[in-house]
């Protein structure tokens, strides 16, 4: 059968198929059959979903003769950390433009977690502050340095959320389909954190049947949990990328049902934990020994937990939770990631 990804340049970063694991103790707590798609166990740089995107983005960069990657993210960006690790593997220079997108200013947040790893992997960090002008100033300084150095740079947006990057989650959807067939299950729903849109868009396009490619099943809903921006903005981002990926593959991905995004776990904003997300982190850890991150997977898991407990999902078939990684970010939050009262916990805004 034809490989739908023939013709796209790609570099190996994920390290093979990531596990699809039953979660029996979590399932017993929620009254629903839950499986975990462990993209946190992808192999490079402590793993995560962005490696799937970077296989295609950096494949294109290498094929185009680029020697540098430039990308964007919040200070504790998982995408930035995985980009830095992938560039280290491939011998590319990596420049990360980091914005203050989360109202935290303590030393642990500014220097620990993903930031520590960015530096360990040899990336150059450009701090852009919290304003559009600060971002444009940082980009201007970076462009001047790249020009002076004669760099051949490949630029990619935050989260690797461009059509080529989203192809990585078309691959994931096909991979998940095969695993479900092997386990003889057809999920009722797949839950995933939805931020800049590429992961959910890829999963949706991967669910559209195509010759030579599997799909999770026409009855499976791809449920995005908004964690970065409003529901309408998230839906717009997913639809745009869905259609762009469809164009790349010669496939009409708009034939899928409406894009599903749930904003119930957004809380006070991006990167700000909620009591529900803290409880989700604790429940996953205490039942399955699985660690979530405070920004993405904990809020997505909180949505899954609420929907299972209410009986909205899990009554007609299993539920799959896509663990997109991000665990290093946990160590930038310290005790603020724990549920309940935290006497003596540092203030997020401490200098």
- CATH class descriptor name of the largest domain: Alpha Beta
Low-confidence runs of at least 5 consecutive residues = 210-217, 343-347
What is the correct CATH architecture of the largest domain?
3-Layer(aba) Sandwich
Main sheet: strands, sense, barrel: 6 strands, mixed
- How many structural domains can be distinguished in the coordinates? 2
Strand content: 5-15%
CATH topology of the largest domain: Rossmann fold
Instruction: State Rg.
Output: 19 Å
What pattern of helices and strands is seen along the backbone?
A: EHEHEHEHHEHEHEHEHEHHE
The rounded distance between the terminal residues' Cα atoms is 58 Å
Number of helices: 11
Q: Structural class, from secondary structure content? A: alpha/beta
Shape descriptor reads: globular
- How confident is the prediction overall: mean pLDDT? 92
The percentage helix is: 40-55%
Within the largest sheet, what's the order of strands? 1-2-10-7-8-9
Count of extended strands: 10
């Amino acid at each position: 059968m034809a490989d739908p990804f023939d013709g796209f340049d790609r570099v190996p970063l994920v390290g093979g198929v990531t596990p699809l694991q039953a979660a029996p103790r979590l399932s017993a707590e929620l009254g629903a059959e839950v499986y975990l798609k462990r993209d946190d166990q992808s192999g490079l740089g402590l793993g995560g979903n962005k490696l799937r995107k970077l296989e295609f983005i950096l494949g294109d960069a290498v094929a185009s003769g680029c020697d540098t990657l430039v990308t964007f993210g919040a200070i504790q960006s998982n995408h930035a950390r995985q980009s830095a690790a992938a560039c280290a593997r491939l011998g590319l220079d990596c420049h990360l433009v980091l914005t203050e997108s989360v109202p935290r200013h303590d030393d642990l947040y500014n220097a620990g977690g993903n930031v520590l790893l960015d530096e360990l992997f040899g990336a150059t960090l450009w701090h852009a502050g919290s304003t559009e002008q600060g971002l444009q100033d940082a980009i201007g300084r970076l462009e001047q340095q790249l020009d002076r150095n004669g760099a051949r740079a490949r630029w990619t947006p935050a989260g690797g959320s461009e059509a080529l990057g989203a192809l990585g989650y078309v691959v994931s959807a096909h991979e998940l389909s095969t695993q479900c067939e092997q386990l003889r299950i057809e999920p009722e729903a797949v839950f995933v954190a939805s931020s800049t849109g590429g992961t959910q868009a890829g999963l949706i396009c991967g669910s559209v049947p195509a010759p030579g490619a599997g799909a999770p099943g026409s009855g499976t809903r791809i449920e995005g949990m908004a964690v970065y921006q409003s529901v309408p903005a998230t839906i717009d981002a997913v639809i745009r990328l869905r259609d762009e990926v469809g164009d790349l593959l010669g496939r009409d991905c708009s034939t899928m049902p409406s894009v599903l995004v749930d904003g119930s776990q957004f809380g006070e904003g991006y990167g700000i934990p909620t009591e529900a997300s803290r409880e989700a982190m604790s429940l996953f850890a205490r039942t399955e020994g699985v660690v979530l991150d405070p920004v993405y997977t904990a809020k997505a898991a909180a949505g899954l937990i609420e929907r299972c407990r209410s009986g909205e999902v899990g009554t007609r078939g299993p539920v799959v939770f896509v663990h997109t990684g991000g665990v290093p970010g946990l160590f930038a939050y310290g005790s603020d990631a724990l549920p309940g009262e935290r006497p003596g916990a540092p203030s997020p805004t401490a200098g």
